[in-house]
Design brief:
This protein is mainly β. Strands 3-4-5-11-6-9 form a six-stranded antiparallel β-sheet, with no helix packed on it. Strand 1 and strand 2 form a beta hairpin. InterPro entries: Cupin_2, OryJ/VirC-like, RmlC-like_jellyroll, RmlC_Cupin_sf. Pfam families: Cupin_2. This is Cupin domain-containing protein.
Amino acid sequence: MSFPAIHRVVTGHDADGKAIVASDGPLPTVFELQALPGMFFHEVWETAGTPAPVDNGADPTTGPTMHGPPKHGTRIRFVDFPPDEAYLADAEQRMKAAFGEVNNSAALTTKDDSPHPMMHRTEAVDYGIVIAGELTLVLDDSDVPLRPGSVVIQRGTNHAWANRSGKPCRMLFIQVDGQYDPAIAAALAAR
């Protein structure tokens, strides 16, 4: 199963303040992780501050692919997940390589007793919406089945996305930079 290409429309302003279409077409950055063939990051947009600059600046998605949102910023992307069986045989090596590819090796939290080899955590609030296919949200103590229309509000917890369906899955993620509550930060540091 392959998913349709993402169509993106970006608006802006002309010199007189009139609303215009700045770009209309396919995404300029679609990145397949070499360590996880079939996992694609479709970079839609990002902001690099709060409040977000409302300008006619350059497309922020054409730089290096990053796992989490920019500091004080946001990121929106689609992710296509291949079935788990495509990489579970040598998962530990693949996960280290994959998180290296997206410039966030520190996010990987997998240990010998982890429930899934893709366990990771970022100091962010992520809204994950299943668009097509099925996925399982894996937490330290539970699994939650997800289907099209499921929305996960992921608040910096240790988690993985397991695709046990045998078919690709597409999710939309909106990532918002965050900061742990001091009590949660202390509990995480003690683990």
